[in-house]
Amino acid sequence: MKVVKLSPTGKLYVEVCLTPALLPLYNINDSIVVVIDIFRATSSICYGIDNGATAIIPVSEVEECAAYHGTDHLLAAERDGKVVEGFDFGNSPFSYVPEKVAGRTVVLTTTNGTHAIHLSKMAKQIVIGSFFNLTALCDYLISKKHNVLLVCAGWKNKFNLEDTIFAGAVVHQLNGASYKLDDSSIAAEDLYLLAKDDLRGYLKKTSHGERLKLLGIEADIDFCLNVDITTAIPVLEGDRLVKLI
Amino acid sequence: MKVVKLSPTGKLYVEVCLTPALLPLYNINDSIVVVIDIFRATSSICYGIDNGATAIIPVSEVEECAAYHGTDHLLAAERDGKVVEGFDFGNSPFSYVPEKVAGRTVVLTTTNGTHAIHLSKMAKQIVIGSFFNLTALCDYLISKKHNVLLVCAGWKNKFNLEDTIFAGAVVHQLNGASYKLDDSSIAAEDLYLLAKDDLRGYLKKTSHGERLKLLGIEADIDFCLNVDITTAIPVLEGDRLVKLI
């Protein structure tokens, strides 16, 4: 059995990778990676899997998604916040309701989220996080007794607040179970504690919130900030995200 | 005269690059870059220039620094928090007192700070920030009416709290002059506001603080958190940091 590498104080690590551009700095093959893209990819993935989607196949490029035309899969492609022309839908959570996705497989490509999943492929395990499954996810992570790396998808490799705040929410729940924090997990937790009593108000001032507002998808943003409305944890098995049993 | 690029709301930008690894994402040639390495390179540079050093020449590699052997320059080299064997000193601020550096040129290489300076070379102007010259620096930046990019040197390309907190202190002073903030400058300012009433207490929990404590340089750390004890602003002219006139 592989021995888990502990911190010098004998604790497990919980670290936050603030953008995918920083992933090469982390020892991901020794960690359970949680991929986070709150507005909106990982929120929609959690919602879709909870709503009975058989699987969601994350692909990096629009062309890879298009290659599934002619199969019975649903094809979802988003770039720069908009549905790509010719696709069934993008990454609005309202497209991942039971009526649409139950019993179906969705092929999904997004600007940031699916990219972060692919960059994390060497991880011991990849699970998907969002406010929707926060507590279920944290309970699972604590039960695994393993190092945890929270990977924020950000916006085109830049830091963003919504993903960091969610990472901080996870750190906060794990911290009670005495993990060793790095500087970015300390910062994420402190920002979460500042924001938690009014997530919507706090995130209104962010760049991405403004960008999505311009796109007319404030309802999506508002919905993505609901906490603990699902319990499913999407996990990557091969090239498919499925419900963790 | 070159027109400064403004944000869509007509404001100047103040952005925070949380680690040098993210520099390629920023439009640095349109910005005044402030390089920040609080523990300890940029604190010591500010202190040395304020204490009468003629110039400080930042070099990336120990070998480049060694190449100045035989000149009348002082040679300073630090790696992993320690003075490199064979050099006059490293980056402890206590080595940059008037008795040692007044009227002298120092050639300096450090693990993070001088690296960040070199990566920023394409900037419109590079100035050096630390808590020592906080208010003088902010007054200068506001007077310039230009976009500002705060570059945190971090630790081996990872995010660190002390550089981010200082960036937040700058954002806080500039924010009053109505700059447009990005997500990382919002986060940095909020973390600074959390930390400002007890900088030493807040930073005790950081990874780098622990690392430096192991190296027995707590006195350096404590000293680097003194606010507004100098007014000199080191500016890069050619390959030399000199006092801005």
Automatic annotation (TrEMBL), chains A, B:
Keywords: Hydrolase, Magnesium. It is an enzyme of class 3 (hydrolase). The keyword Disulfide bond does not apply. It catalyses: (2R)-O-phospho-3-sulfolactate + H2O = (2R)-3-sulfolactate + phosphate. Its cofactor is Mg(2+). Its EC number is 3.1.3.71. The keyword ATP-binding does not apply. InterPro entries: ComB-like (IPR005238), ComB-like_sf (IPR036702). GO terms for molecular function: 2-phosphosulfolactate phosphatase activity; magnesium ion binding; sulfopyruvate decarboxylase activity. Belongs to the ComB family. HAMAP family: ComB (MF_00490). This is Probable 2-phosphosulfolactate phosphatase. It comes from Arcticibacter svalbardensis MN12-7. The gene is comB.
